[in-house]
Amino acid sequence: MSLIKTYQKLLKNHFMVVQAVQTGLLMGVGDVVAQTLVEGKNLKKYQPVRTAKFMLLGTVFVGPSLSLWYRTLARKFGTQSSSITTLKKVACDQLIFAPSFLVVFVTNLNLMNGKSFSHIKKELEANYTDIVVANWKLWPAVQLVNFYLVPLNYQVLLVQGVAIVWNTYLSWKTHTSHEDIEIE
User: Fold this and answer.
1) Does Membrane appear among the keywords (predicted)?
2) Average pLDDT over residues 138-161
3) Distance of CA 37 to the CA centre of its chain
4) 160 within 8 A of 22, measured Cβ to Cβ
5) What pTM did the predictor assign?
6) Residues 110-119: contacts with CB under 8 Å, at least 24 apart
7) Where would I find the beta strands (DSSP E) of 22-112?
8) DSSP 45
9) How many domains, the chain?
10) 151-159 mean pLDDT
């Protein structure tokens, strides 16, 4: 059986598990890229635990959240590829889901790193606007293509493929910003 057919069968029989695992793996790739190419860490300075945390967050939170969200959008607006349906989905995704999702994502990542709620609040105050604006520079165009052309079962995969770049940015932004935040 070909790799594509195996993937399709697994997706059909274990939809949420496949979405969660592929998201965790691709988020791990984003963190590796952030550490090695963006931050310039060599093998001695590379932090595998950081990558593992990013992968865990992708597996237990990001993948399932996106899967459920895209299914919710499909139930609410349908699955037809029309301009109006696509624009409604993108508007909901970018004006409702993305801003709240990013708060929860940054909070969860910081909690996994042992940060206090006062630290998380200060980090959100310092970086949230930058992250949301960066989100709006990338994701509306991606989601237009995603919601218009891609079948529901493959939407998370497309997003996570593009998200290797986004996850690299999020990993870099959420890990380098810690030095700039002073906690009283």
Assistant:
1) yes
2) 93
3) 19
4) yes
5) 0.84
6) 110/174, 112/53, 112/56, 112/57, 113/53, 115/178, 116/183, 118/183, 118/184, 119/181, 119/183
7) none
8) T
9) 1
10) 90
**CA pseudo-torsion sign 35, 17, 99, 133:** positive
Closest CA to 154 of 19, 64, 59: 19
Phi, psi of 19 (to 5 degrees): -60, -40
Query: What domain range includes position 79?
Result: 3-180
Distances (CA, A) of 172 to 40, 66, 93, 180: 11, 22, 24, 13
Q: How far is CA 80 from the centre of its chain?
A: 25
- pLDDT tens, position by position, 84-104: 999 999 999 999 999 999 999
DSSP assignment letter at 79? S
Contact 81, 71 (CB under 8 A): no
Please give the single-letter amino acid code of residue 147. Answer: F
